[in-house]
Amino acid sequence: MELTLAIAIGVLSASGVYLLLRPRTFQVIIGLSLVSYAVNLFILSMGRLRMDAAPILSGADADITNYADPVPQALVLTAIVIGFAMTALFLVVLLAARGLSGSDHVDGKGD
Amino acid sequence: MIADLPLWLSILVSAFVVLGALLTMAGCFGLVRLKSFYLRIHGPTMGTSMGGGLILLASAIYFTVTRERLVVHELVIFLFVTLTTPVTLMLLARATLFRDRVEGNEGVPKRPEKAETPASP
Amino acid sequence: MAAPGEKIRGAAWVTAVVAAILSLLSLALFPSIANGEVLISRIEWVPQLGLNLTLRLDGLAWLFAVLITCIGFLVVLYARYYMSPKDPIARFHALLLAFMGAMLGLVMSGNIIQLAIFWELTSLVSFLLIGYWYHRGDARDGARMALIITGTGGLALFVSMLVIGHIVGSYELDDVLASGSKIVESPLYPVALILFLLGAFTKSAQFPFQFWLPNAMTAPTPVSAYLHSATMVKAGVFILTRFWPVMHDHQLWFWIVTYTGLATLIFGAYTALFQRDLKGLLAYSTISHLGLITTLLGMGTPLAAVAAIFHIANHATFKASLFMAVGIIDHETGTRDVRKLSGLRKYLPFTATLAIIASAAMAGVPLLNGFLSKEMFFTETAEFDPNVFVNLSLPIGATLAGMLSVAYSIKFVHGVFFGPPPTELEKVPHEPPALMRRPIEILVLICLAVGIIPGITIAPYLAAAVHSVLGADTPYYSLSVWHGFNLPLIMSIIAMVGGAVIYVPYYRKLRDIDGVPLTRGLMGQRVFERILVTATNRWARHLVGAFGTQRLQPQIFVVIFLALAAGIAAGWARMGNLPLPQSFDPVLGLVWLLGGISALAAAQQAKFHRLASMILMGGAGLATCLTFAWFSAPDLALTQLLAEIATTVLILLGLRWLPKRSPVPESTPMAARLRRYRDVALAGLVGLGTALASYAIMTRSAPEGISDFFLANAYKEGGGTNVVNVMLVDFRGFDTMGEITVLGVVALTVFGLLRRFRPASDSAERPEQQRVLDDYAPGSSENVADDFLRIPALIMNWLFPVVVVVAIYMLMRGHDLPGGGFIAGIIMSLAFILQYLAGGTRWVEERLRILPLLWIGWGLLLALLTGIGAMVLGAPFLTSAFAYADIPLIGKVPMATALIFDLGVFALVVGATVLMLIALAHQSIRRPKVAGSNKPKQRAGTDKWN
Amino acid sequence: MSVTILEWSLFAAQIMLGLGMLATLYRMVVGPRAQDRILALDALYVVALLLLITLGIRTNSQVYFELAMLMGLLGFVGTVALAKFLMRGEVIE
Amino acid sequence: MRRLLPHPILAGFLLILWLVLQQSAGLGHILFGGVIAIAVSMAASAIIPERVVIRRPLKFIQLILVAGLDIIRSNLAVMSVLFHPRPNPTAGFIEMDLTLKNPFALAILAVILTATPGSAWLEYDRARSTVLIHVFDLVDEDEWVATVKKRYEALLLEIFQ
Amino acid sequence: MTGMNHIAILPILIPMAAAVFNLIGGDGRSNRRIIGINIGFSVLLLLVSILLVAVLAQSDTAAAAVYPLGNWPVPFGIVLVADRLAAVMVLTTSILSLAALIFASARWHSRGTNFFPLFHALVMGLNGAFLTGDLFNLFVFFELLLAASYGLALHGGGRNRVRAAMHYIVINLVASFLFLIGVALIYGTTGTLNMADIARAVPHIAADNVGLFEAGVAVLGIAFLIKAGSWPLHFWLPNTYSSAAPPVAALFAIMTKVGFYAILRLWTLVFANQTGPELAFGQNVLFVLGIATVAYGSVGALSSKALDRLASYLILVSAGTLLLAVAYNVPGVTTGALYYVVVATLAAGALFLLKDVIDQVLPAEAQILAVSLEFYGDEEDVIDEDQEVSRSFPAAATLLGWCFAIAALVMAGLPPLSGFLSKFAMLSAAFNAPSAPTAATWWITGALIISGLFVLIAMVRNGINIFWTSLPDDGGLALRPLEVGPIMVLLALCVLMAVFAGPALSYFADTAQFIHSPQNYIDLVLPKGETP
Ligand code: NA
Ligand code: NA
Fold it and tell me: Where is it mostly found (chain A) (predicted)?
C-alpha cells in the first residue's frame, strides 16, 4: 500500500511539474491541480497509512490507538480549500491576461 | 473488520455484490468494446441501474443486519444516481447528435424540420 | 513678495552673519588651542556602537576651522555681488551654510565614524552646489561625476574607519591617535590603508581620480573658490594629516602616498598649462598643489608634515583669491576662455594687480606665502634617501612640477592681463564694485603678510596645528624667508627660469592648443564616463538579462530545480534505509493504475486536447478522492470530491475565453524537443524525490507527536466525535479562520478582475455551436437552448431543494461525522450552479437573488464574533464552549460555539464559491455589450447579483 | 466461513469494479471524441461510488456513505458542465 | 397554506429524505426536518413554479414496479450481448410521437427510458411532440414503440393528466 | 485573562474587522465616511502596535506575550508569540499600511473593486505571519497575505499589471506547494507543528529521519527564499512591484520582509540546535544567495530607467542584505539587520508613493497615464467628485526633492541617515564578532558598500532626470496633502530613527539577543514539564 501511494504521489507530481513548465496557461492550471493532488496525498502520508481507522470517535471512552492521525487530515483540508481558491484565482488571471494580450502563452507572447 | 453474518445472508450479500460488480464491469467493458457512441451510452446504465442497485442492496442488507436496525439510506444513493445519470446522457447524446448532423455523418437521423418551415418538396 | 534683490540681500546677510560669527568664534578659541588644549564636546548618539557626536578641536582642526569659516565668510561676501538676481539665491546660501557645517563637522570630528559621516555630507552638498545651475547639462554631469567619485571614496574611507576601529578597539579619535603603532603593525593595515587612501585621494583629486575636479568647475565661482580649492578638496589631505601619526610609519604608506602625490603634482601642473578655461587652469593647478601636499605627507618625515600643513593654509589663501579673480573676469567679460581674453590690465587694474600677486604666490615667487612652503617642499625632496630611485625622482619631479607651475602661472597672468586689448568680448569690462574685490584683497594681503613676515603672522597658528599632529615629535623648523643659497633655492631658480623658458617661446601655441598633448589618451574622465554610461546602462541591462529572466518558464524551472537540489543536498546523505513494502492492496493498485495513467495522459493532452485533459484530470482527482477514503480520511475525500467538481465547472467556464486550440503540429523543432526532455527529466526527478520521501516516512514509525492529544480530547474537551472537524473549528480554528479569509479575498479579487474583463477579440463572438444552432432553428421565437435542455433542466431544477437539504444535513452533522461548513458550503453553491447550468444566468437571476458578497461578509463576521465572544468572557480568542441542551420534545442537542463558527465557514464558502463561479458566468451575458460599443457600460448588469 | 465468503466475494467485486474503472480509463484516454471521454468519466464516477460501497462493507463502516451519496448526487455536475460545454460552447449562458 | 407549502409533495419528499439521512424517525428529527423541508420547498418554488399533482399515487407505485422489472430484464439482455465474443447489436433510432405533454411526466419517462439499459432518450421536440430514442437491440420498431406507449406513457398520462 | 493579554491578537483582529466592515457596511461606493472609518481602523491598529512594542520595551527580558488561541495548551493549539521581533515587524506593517492607506484614499481606492477589504486582508496576513508561533498557521497567513497581494497587485487592471501578477501568482503557488511539502516533512519527522516544539524536538528526531527532516527544512527554506526575494528566485518581483498600484507597491515593500522574518525565525530556532556541517552549509548557501541577490539588485537598479522599477530593485538589494545578515549569524549583525529592515521598508514604501506623486506633476508622464487609463480603465476610473483635490504649493518641487533625497540616502545607506547607521551597525558588529574579520566579513562589507554605491549612482541618475531635467521649476506644483503627507511622515520616521538610533538599536539588540538564544523562546512558549 505504501509503495502504491508513493508511486501515485510520484506520478502525480511528475506530471504536474511537467505541466507547470509548459508555456500555455491551460497546461499550467492543469499542472497546478495535479501537483496539488500530489501534495495533498503527500501530507496525508506523513501521518502514516491506516485503513478503517477514520478519526471519528466512537464516544468518550474510545481507545485513541484505533484511529488514524487527524493532524495531516486537518492540514490537507485547509490545503484543499486554499488550492481551490488559488486555482480559481489563477484561472481568472489567465483569462484576464488572455483578454488583454490575445494570447494564452504564460508570457503573453503571440502564438 | 468485516462482520460475521449468518451463512445464508453472507452468501446472499456476496452474490448481490458479485453480480452487481459483474454487471457494472460488463457495462464498462461495453464502453471499450462497442463501436459507436450511440451504442456506448447504453453501457454505463448497467452500473447505474441493476449493477449499482444490487451492490447497494447488499450494503443495505449487510448494515441492517450488523447494525440491528433498518438501514435504507442506500436507497437515497440509488435514487440520486437514477435521477442524475440520464441528465448527462441526454446532454451528451444531444451534443453528439448535433455534431454528427453538422458534420453530415452517416447513420444519424435527419434533423426534425420545424413546424413552421414547410416540408421539403 | 520681496524683490529679487532684496531676497539676495536677505539670504546673503544671514549667511554672512553666521559665517562671521563662526569665524570670530574659532578665532576666539585660539588661546586655548595655542596652549595645546584639545577641546572636546560629546553628545551620545549610538553609544553601544561607539558612535557619538564628538566635537574635538585641536590645532589642526582649529587651523582648518579658521580656513573654513573665514574663507567662507569672504566667499559669501563675494557671492553677494557675484550671483545674479535670477538665481535661486536662498538655495545657494542654504547649501553654502550646510557645506560649512559639514566641513566643520568633518575637521572637528572626534569620532572616526562621525568623520566618515561628515565626509560624505560634504560630498553630497558639493553635489548640490556643483549642480546649482542644473538646467545646464555640464553642471549636471559635473555634479554627478564629483558625487560618484568622492562618494565612492567616502564609502571606502568608511570601511577603512571600520577596520581601524576594529584594530584599535574604539572609534574615538583620541583612542585612535593614542594607539601608537597598533595600526601599522596590524595585518589589516594594508587593507585599511588602501581604503583610507582611496577616500583621501578621491576627495583631494589625486591622480588617477583627479578628473572630477575640473568638471566641478561648472559650479558658480564662489563655490569653486570655496569648496574646490580652499576647503573640501583639502579634506583628503586633512585626513592624511590627521592619521599621519598613526599610519605613516610603513613602507606602503611611503610608496603609495608619495608617488601618487608626485604623479598628481606633475600631471596637474602639466595639464594646467594647456587649459583654455581659466577655471580649468586653476582646477588643475589645485590638483597639482594637492599633489604637492600629498607628496609631503607621504614622505613620512615630521618636517615634511610641517610643510604640508603650511602649504595647506597657503594654498587655500592664494587659490581662493585667484578663483574669485577669475569670477570677476567671468562676470565682467562674460567669458573665461583664455583665447578671448587679453590685455585686461587696462580695464581691471585693481583686479589684475590682485590676481598677479596671487598668481605669483601660486608660482612660488619669493616674498609670498607660496614660496615658503614650496621651499620647504624642495628641501624635503632634496633630503638624501638611500634608495637611488627615491633620491633622484623626488627632487627632479619636484623641480619639473615647479617649472610647470611657473609656466602656467605666467600663462594665466600674461594671457589675461597683458597683450592687446580683447576683441571678442560682448561687453566692455569694468572694475566690479569694490566690495566684490574686498575678499580678494584680504586674501592677497594675507599671502603677502605670510610671505614677508611669517614669523609674526602664521607661526603661532602653524605651530599649534603642527603640534597637534606631531605632538612630542614636532621637529625644529624655520619659517624664515632666506635660508641661504642651498639646493632648494637652486631648484627654485631652475623652476622659475625653466617655467619662463617653457612659456615664452610657445605662448601662442599654448593659448590656442586644443587638448593636452601626450596625455590626451589618458583621460580618466573618458574612462569614467564610458564606465558610467556603458557599464551602468548597457552592461547592467545585459547582466540583468543574463542572470535574470522575464519569462515565466525558466523561473519555474529554477524554483523547482533549486527546491529539488536543496532537498537532495540536505536529505540524501542521511536518508536512512528503505524497507521493502509490507503489504499490497491490488484494488488500490487498480485505482492508481487509473489515477496514474490519467495524470500522465492529462499532462500529455493538455496542450492540444484541453477537454480531454480536464476529463483525465477528473480521473486522477477521483483516484485521489478514493485514496483519501481508503486511508481513513472521509472528510478529505468529501472535500476533494466537491472541490474537484467545483474546479471542473470553473475551468470550463473559463475555457470558453481561451483561443481555439491549434492543430497538432507535424513536427517539433529540435530546441523545443530538447527543452521538453529537460523538463521531463526534472519532473521525473521531482516525482522520484517526493515518492521516496513519502515512502520513507510511511514505512517508518511515527514520532511521538501532538496527534494523540486531539484524539483524546476531541470529544471530552471539544464536544465532537469527528476529530478532524473539531480540529478545524476548535483546536485549529484559527487556521480555518485564516483559510476562509483567503477564500473570501480570492473571491473579491476574482470579482474585481472580472468586472473589468475584456475578452480577446477572437473569443468575443458567440460560440460556434450556438450560432449553428440558431441557424438550425430559424424563426423560432423561443430560446432554442431552453427547448433543447428542457427535460434535463427540469430534473436539475428539481434537484435544487434536494441538494440544499443535503447541504444542511452535512453542515449539521459535521462536528460528529464527516461533513462540516466547508463541505456543506460547496454543496450549497453547487446547488446554485446547477440552476445556472440548467436555466442560464438571466433565468436564475430573475428568480433568485444570491448576494454573495453579503454571504462572505456575514460568514467572516460570524467567525470573528464567535472568537470575540470568548474574549468578552475573558478567555482567549476562539475559545469554544459546548454543552448538551435538553430541549423538550427533541431531546439532547449538542450546542457548541464551534458550530456557529462552522456556520460562518459555511456562509463564506457559499458566498465565495458562488461569487467566483457566477462572476465568470456573467462574462457571457456581458459580451454583446462589450462588442457593441466602446462607451462605458452600465453598472446595473453587474450590480444585480452583487 | 461466512466471513471468508464475504471477504473473497468483496475482493472479487472490487477487482471487477477496478477493471471496470480501467475500461472507462481506456475510453477517457482514447476518445476518440470528447463525448466518449465525458461518458467514460460519468461511468467512472458510478463505479467509484460502488467501490466505496464495497469498501464500506469490507471495513464494516458507514463512514463512506456520504461520500458515495455525494458522488451520486453531485458527481454529474462536472459531467453535465462538460456536456453542456460540448453542446453550447459555453457552460452557463 | 398554499404560500406556506407551495410544494407539498416536494416538502414531504424532503422530510423523508431528511429522516433517511438521519437514520432516525425521532420526534426531534421530524420537527426539525419538517421545518427544513418546508423552508427549502418554499425557497425552491422560485425555481420550480409549477405545482405538481399526482392524481393516482397507486399507479405511480405500479409504474415504479414495472420500470424496475424492465430494468432487470434489459440489464440481463444487454449483458448477454456484451459478453458475446463479438457484440453486434442491431441498434437503431426511433422517432416516436408522444401524447404526453406534462413536462414533469416527460422527465419521468425520460429518466426511465434512459436508466433502462438498451434505450436512451436523445431529443425531445416540443413543437411536434416527438422524441428521438436510441435502442440498443432493436428487433421490431413498431412493437417497441407500442410497448413503451402501453407500459409507461399510458400510466404516466393517468398519473399526471 | 486580562484585557492587556489580548494585545497579541488585536493586530490580526483589527484588520479583519476592517475587512468585514467593508463587506457588510460598505455600500460598494466609497464615500468620505467609509474612507474615514477605514483610516480609523488603521489608526487603531497603529495604536495597538505601538502599545505592543511599548509593553515589550518595558519588560526587561525581551519576553514575549504568548497567546494560546482557543485556550488550548501549547503545543497542541495554535499559539501567537508576540516577542520583540514580531512586535517590531507588526509596528512597521502598521505604520506603512496607514501611510499607504491614507495615500490611497486620495485617489487609488476608486480605481478598482474592493480595495479596502483586500488591503486590510493583506495587513491581517502580514501581522498573522509575524505573530504566529505555529508553522502551519504561518502557511495559512502566508496564503492570506499572498491572496490579498494578488488582488492588490491586480488593482487597477491593465496589461502589464495582469501579466506581472500572473507570473507572481504562479511562482508563489509553486512556493506554496514547497511550503506544504516542507511542513509535511517536518511534521512527519517531528510529529509537531508548533515552532518552539519543533525546535525542542529536533535533537530527538530518529536517526533515520534526520535526512528527511533536513530535506523538509531545505524545501521550506526555498519557499521562504522565494518570498524573501532571493536570487535566482525573485525574477517575478521587479515586474510585480513596479506594475502594482503605488500604494499597493508601498505596502508590498514589507512583503519580502516576511520571507526574511520567517528565515530568521526558523534559522535561529532550528539551526541553533546544530553546530555541525549542516549549519556551515546552510550558512554558506544563504550567504552566496545573499551576495548574488545584492549584486543582482544593485545591477538591476543601475539598469532601471523608471523610478518604480528602480525601487523594486532596491527591494531586492535590501532583501539580499537581510539574507547576508541572517547568514552571518551573529547577534550584533542581526541587531543592525532589524534596524535596517524597518528603515529600508519605510523608505522603500515612501519611494513607491513618491513615484506616483512625481508622475502626476511630470507633465508628459501624466498624459501617458491618462491615455492608458482611458484605454484600460472601467467606469470606476472616473474620478469621484468627493475625492481629495490637489492644491498648488509653493516650493513643492523642493519638498519632493527633499523627500527623494532622504529616501535615496536611506536606501543607498549614505550618511547621515538611518540607512547608513544600519549598515554601520551590521558592519561594525561583523568586524567585531569573534574571530572576525573572516572572508565573510569582507564579502558582507563589500556587498553592503558596493551596493550602496550602485544604488547611489542609480538614484542620482533618477533624481537628476526627475528634478533637474523633467520637473517644471518651482512656483506651484499641484499636490494633494493626503498624498504628500504620508510620504513625509514615512521619511520623517527614517530621520527620527537616525536621531534616536541609540534607543532603537538597544531595543533591537535585546531583540537579537533573544532570538539568538532559542532556548529562551522554547522555554517561554513551552511550559516546563508539559512537553509531550
Ligand atoms: Na451520475
Ligand atoms: Na438507458
Answer: membrane
